[in-house]
Amino acid sequence: MNGRSTKSFRNEGRWDAIMEALSPGDWVVIQFGHNDEKAADPARFTEPEGEFRANLERFVRETRARGGHPVLATPIVRRRFDDHGAFVDSHGEYPRVAREVAAAEGVPLLEMEDVTRELVRSYGVERSKSLFLHFEPGEHPQLPGGLHDDTHLSELGAGRIAELAAREMARLHLPLVRYLKLDTIVPAGRQ
Predict the structure, then answer these.
(1) Confidence at residue 1, expressed as pLDDT on a 0 to 100 scale
(2) In angstroms, rounded to a whole number, what is the distance separating the alpha carbons of residues 19 and 68?
(3) Chain centroid, CA 73 distance in Å
């Protein structure tokens, strides 16, 4: 469910639903940060060193308590460039906290921030728009006024990010890679 933070995902009962459906041996990939950082929204905001860290730790521990295998992932980047074309980070301390929780809890970490940063940088200022929801007025029938969204992914972007996530799982030698069709992934550098 998009638009959720660690706080709102739990408060809406969405985490409880996952725990109820979880069977021993299931894998749970946990990635938050985009909405936890929204300080103007008290229903979603969490401090990186406070509630965000505590929620990630709880997600990991509760997954393990049900016999599941937790995997943490750093948040994917937003498409942000400065006036000189240099990439600009938007997640602050949230990725660092996810890395620290993964290390402290001994769980695998999908380094999605780093790999998506490289992807967006490699596409550059203009071409990277194709990875996100960028439509000019009249270009998309459901968006007559157009849309310039640098957070949510286009079909192309979602596919590329899924490939990067699968590559990360393979890099970590996670047993769940046997369920992935890795032979369909575009080799690194051929984007």
Answers:
(1) 78
(2) 9
(3) 6
Q: Tokens 């498409």 — which residue?
A: 79
Average pLDDT over residues 40-67: 97
The tokens for 141 are: 């029938």
| DSSP string over the chain | -TT--HHHHHHTTHHHHHHHH--TT-EEEE---TTTT-TT-TTT---IIIIIHHHHHHHHHHHHHTT-EEEEEPPPPP--B-TTS-B----TTHHHHHHHHHHHHT--EE-HHHHHHHHHHHHHHHHGGGGEEEE-TTSBTTBTT-EEEEEEE-HHHHHHHHHHHHHHHHHTT-GGGGGS-GGGSPPTT--
* The pLDDT of residue 184: 62
Higher pLDDT, 54 or 178: 54
- What is the CA 163 to chain-centroid distance, rounded? 13
φ, ψ at 73 (rounded to 5°): -135, 135
Q: Residue 36 in contact with residue 81, Cβ under 8 Å?
A: no
Look at residue 149 and tell me whether its pLDDT is greater than 90.
yes
